[in-house]
Write a structure and sequence with these properties.
alpha/beta, Ribosomal RNA small subunit methyltransferase G, S-adenosyl-L-methionine, methyltransferase, about 35% helix, Rossmann fold, rRNA_ssu_MeTfrase_G, rRNA processing
Length: about 240
């Protein structure tokens, strides 16, 4: 039987009984709602603990000192990694962004059920919100577990990161080729790859990589381009 408490401890995170209870409620809501809408293909308890909860918490390996930062989770889906980070580090201020309204409604249910504060779920496309003054270059950290190449993901995410903030794309496996292809986009959008953190997820043989991309200067105003273009025609 896999213990979330023990796996979190392996990452240097001490979870209280209340936090563990919040994760339990989250698991129940996720699997219940998944019966009527497609939130995740992963539903077995141990798999959810490892591949969603522990996987999200593993972002601490980026060593960005999660405490009171303002974080945007782009393409959050069923709330990963944003909600597990919020449970484990209640001082964080988090915005969860997703393009599907049904998912956003589910996220709001979770936020209410877990009695979380300073966390909001918003419905929309990353390309659109990045043009709004209250979102553009307003976040200390932008995280994403979304499946997109680095070039596309950088165009979605870097415009949200404040200068001197950090973009943390979270990837499965090795990503050398993707990094080479995405380097120009990262630089063009004001970022610089500062570090590459690779590890095996505790309790599994799954390789993970977190890129630490520091925002050095403001992103050019023309980015992100209109909805759909970053994925159809990635910056090369």
């Amino acid at each position: 039987m896999i213990s979330l408490r023990e796996k979190a401890e392996e990452l240097g995170i001490a979870l209280t009984d209340r936090q563990l209870a919040q994760f339990e409620i989250y698991y129940e809501l996720l699997t219940e709602k998944n019966k009527v809408m497609n939130l995740t293909a992963i539903t077995e308890r141990e798999d959810v603990i490892l591949k969603h909860f522990v996987d999200s918490l593993a972002l601490v390996k980026a060593e960005c000192g999660f405490s009171s930062q303002k974080i945007l989770d782009v393409g959050t889906g069923a709330g990963f990694p944003g909600i597990p980070l919020k449970i484990a580090f209640p001082g964080l201020k988090i915005v969860l962004l997703d393009s599907l309204n049904k998912r956003v409604k589910f996220l709001q249910e979770v936020i209410d059920a877990l009695e979380l504060h300073d966390i909001t779920a918003v419905h929309g496309r990353a390309e659109d919100y990045a043009r709004q003054k209250e979102y553009r270059e307003q976040f200390d950290l932008v995280v994403s577990r979304a499946v997109a190449n680095l070039s596309t993901l950088s165009e979605y995410c870097l415009p949200y990161v404040k200068v001197s903030g950090m973009f943390l794309p979270y990837k499965s496996g090795r990503i050398e080729e993707e990094m080479r292809e995405g380097k120009h986009a990262v630089h063009l959008l004001g970022g610089e790859i500062e570090d590459v953190v690779s590890f095996v997820l505790p309790g599994t043989d799954m390789e993970r990589t977190i890129l630490k991309i520091k925002k050095q200067k403001a992103a050019p105003k023309r980015y992100p381009r209109k909805a759909g273009l970053p994925s159809k025609e990635p910056i090369r």
